[in-house]
Amino acid sequence: MIKVNLSKETIDVKGHAGFAKKGEDIVCASVSTAVTMCINQIELFDMLDHIEFILDEGNFHLHIVNNNDVLEIIIKNLVYTLSDLEITYPKYIKISEN
Question: Containing H/E element for 14?
Fold first, then answer.
């Protein structure tokens, strides 16, 4: 199961969905795509210095160092996408908030 932990300044995404075997898991692929798109958007808006992040297989950590309106919208989009995935695949992704 993929576990997403949200707080005011951090997002942690850990684990593998287990929906299908490696290379065929659409839940893992969807989460990976959403996280990668989030970081890419932040980079395109030249705001990488506003965050600290780790992105490894099965592990994503994002810490907001300097928030602004654009960054907030990008993060809201990531959370919205992950929430949609949780609704669609409740056995494979779980979101909790601190």
Answer: strand 10-14
The boundaries of the domain holding residue 57 are 2-97
- Counting Cβ atoms within 10 Å, is residue 86 exposed (0-12), middle (13-18) or buried (19+)? middle
What is the separation of C-alpha 90 from the centre of its chain, rounded to a whole number of angstroms? Answer: 16
Q: What's the pLDDT score for residue 22?
A: 87
pTM of the predicted model over 0.70:
yes
CATH number assigned to the domain comprising residue 64? 3.30.70.1490
Q: Which residue matches tokens 């592990």?
A: 59
Residue 29 vs residues 21, 32, 58, 92: alpha-carbon distances, Å: 12, 5, 11, 12
d(CA 73, CA 89): 24
* Domain count of the fold of the chain: 1
- Check: CB of residue 12 under 8 Å from CB of residue 60: yes
